[in-house]
Design goal:
two-stranded antiparallel ribbon; alpha/beta; 8 strands; Alpha/beta knot; globular; homodimer
Chain lengths: 183, 183
């Protein structure tokens, strides 16, 4: 999976680069380890932000964090840094066949893939790579969506309220897809 | 649902009172609004911590936060403060019949209720109150577990890695239970 910090939208719908959030990395790395995700790509083109993320990762992989909390180390082994979504896709394509790239969104895009269809797709592609793409801030910019093979319909809880944190959205999405895989 | 800050365990298994985490309230309030949870109880006996939480809640309900982000206001309407789990159960019992109180744990307790059985229980109790209890820090103290009607088996992702943040655990649990209710 990939967590995109650029290009994403702000609340006004403008293209921005969001800042890396320490807690996103922790929570999502732990979810990734729980569900056996191959890699969790943190995507930002800003070198200063990458340096910051590298320091956090090193703390938990080799620093005091690794001694204090070995479970967190296991989770942080999943975390990789890349400049762009294209780079992530290229990276994965060198390991397996071109992955099926699925974007997530809190917005109901025309032609979005229903969760019922995602279930079928996941079961049909059991041994193939799937790359799940999540946006920070107010979601993925269209430039990013264009690079994907489809957009999954929003997570709905039956209320119409549609403002989950990206941390919660990742947890729910991976739990659902993991269930589809095991069925 | 209730998020317990006392009595919970630290990493050494000792009884502690954990500090309220601002982001827990935000993430869990948003998940609660998504799935139409009646109330999200933040439980701590520490008055200073309750005052802090009240200031945060007021900011999003009436302060600058309410104007800046009305969606967050809707989520914060779910947040209530109580001193103890007993108080939460008493409160709910005054509104409906005594709720079915289910604890969650990352530990596989003897006699824990499997997710398959939770599905059956939720479907059988469609119109009854269920109170889901989550622990902060390293999980609920036995004193708390004793007040519940049962403990749900841990969330598993097929890897044996079992260290989700409470934010992720809440998101996944509510998504699963909401699915059971709708089936």
């Amino acid at each position: 999976m990939a967590l995109i910090h650029y290009p994403v939208l702000n609340r006004q719908g403008e293209k921005i680069c969001s800042a890396i959030t320490n807690l996103d990395i922790h929570d999502i790395a732990r979810v990734s380890a729980t569900y056996g995700i191959e890699a969790f790509f943190v995507v930002t083109p800003l070198k200063e932000q990458q340096e910051l993320a590298k320091r956090v990762i090193a703390h938990w992989l080799k620093g005091a964090g690794a001694r204090f909390n070995p479970d967190r180390k296991e989770a942080f082994l999943k975390v990789k840094l890349e400049d762009t979504l294209s780079d992530v896709i290229k990276k994965i394509s060198s390991d397996c066949v071109h992955p099926l790239v699925l974007a997530t969104s809190a917005r109901r895009w025309k032609g979005c893939i229903s969760w019922e269809d995602i279930e079928k797709i996941v079961q049909k592609n059991e041994n193939e790579c799937i790359l799940l793409v999540f946006g920070t801030a107010s979601g993925l910019h269209e430039e990013c969506l264009k690079e994907t093979d489809g957009i999954i319909c929003p997570i709905e809880g039956g209320t119409g309220y549609n403002h989950l944190s990206v941390r919660s959205a990742v947890a729910i999405t991976l739990d659902r897809i993991s269930r589809f895989r095991r069925q």
